[in-house]
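pipeline stage [seq->struct] | target=SusD family protein | organism=Bacteroides clarus YIT 12056 | residues=510
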Amino acid sequence: MKAMIKYSICSILCICFVSLSGCESYLEKSPTDKIITGNFFTTGTAEEVESAINSVYQPLQRSYMYNLRMWTLDIIAGEGRVGNEAGGNGIETVQLSNFIANSDNNGAKELWRGPWAGINRANWVIDNIDLSKKNISDDKISQYKGEAHFLRALYYFNMVRLFGNVPLILHQQTANDNLKVSRTDKNEVYQVIIQDLQNASDYLPQRYTGEDIGRATSGAALGLLAKVYLTLKQYNDVIDVIERLMATNVYSLNENYKDNFDDTKENGPESLFEVQYEKGSPYAPFDVLGQGAWHNEYLAPLAPVNIGGPWGNFGWFHVYSEFAESFEPNDKRKIVSIFSEGDDYQGWIYDPAVSTTGYNVKKFMCTNYGTTNPMDSPLNFPVLRYSDVLLMYAEALNEVGRTAEACAVATAPNVGGPLNRVRVRAGLPSVSGQQAEVREIIRHERRMELAFEGGHRWFDLIRYDEGEYAKNFFHSIGKTNFTLPKHLLLPVPIDDIDANPNLLPQNSGY
């Protein structure tokens, strides 16, 4: 599917935009980011119609989403700090992670603006795909509908967790529409997300073959739906959905944790959904349409040896010792997730002096990066893995009083109770306990298992105990600026509010 996403950008002349600030467009390259919609679906070839759904995926690849902003949520979540602040690098993330950001913060602005192109493209497909019946099969129409519903749900799910009430737009918007929209109550947004994922799970196939591997599947829709229900504390619904997913027998844990972050083993048995990247695309560094991942360059330690790409290493994420020391003895995930003193990486021995904390992120290092464009790693970024599903299942079981099932003994990564299957894969013993004790074990496992993977830790922190868990954690690591309820949400960008006062009221405290 990687090549298909790449070529979709070339084959579509322009994509319709939505600007929620009331301005013409916030995109730097608006002429390459519009579609002439007209009779596209009635006259377009099968390949052109396919390019339309491919275009809905493309914003996921951008720096406003999984190429930068989504993984920097783990810095905000207290797993580390911006490591290279020369010349003001990362100042917006520094402000957010120290809970001193205001409504003019650029990181919050990019997280707010990042999903809208994808949402509007999804609306465009959903509104018009039935017009393609002369050119593509009914099965393809159902599939493309399902992909669009899944992606719209993913974009909105990220937004509603970050900002609370957000504009709910369910049909294609153009520059001729009234774009000064208002924010919608988050409960209504959640109901649309749930309906989208239920639709997607009905429309989508369980598996793909060939170049279609990597597209959203019914399993991806069910896994994301379970996460939505978990966020809403609808635990019985979580259990029902995950048991439907498990009954398909499509997913299993990789025997080796490291295989989830190997560019030669992408879209494997543990992957429900990942953002597809590839090296060798023709775009310039930092281009919004670029297909390569930035993670290798950004996360490579700022060391004497160039292991990040043609420009060297950015060293952007220094991992706190508190996180590094939270791994249990013999946890196999530690050496995969972070650089520690003495680690041998491609013949270079890690020196903790290259980091202000003594640790760096290792999980997304990739030796197979492009040789001309430094922002050009082919390594996909995981959005939803089966280990996450197992831990969600364990949490829901525990919360409804089925604690013994949640922590049943596991004898192998794919044999036994959901919590302990994840632990056994990590080289750790099975555990058990009373409900409150198991709750804390599951929270710890989620932190170590899903570290640095697109904000899981942040989203977990803010949903635990109505934010009290987050406050206690941040205060324990010295981040006493964190207050409730203010810091459970990010600020809506003041630029957008100034252009569109209908976005008021601002989130509390900003």
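stage status: PASS
auto-comment: The first strand starts at residue 80 and ends at 82. Residues 113 and 122 are 15 Å apart (CA to CA).
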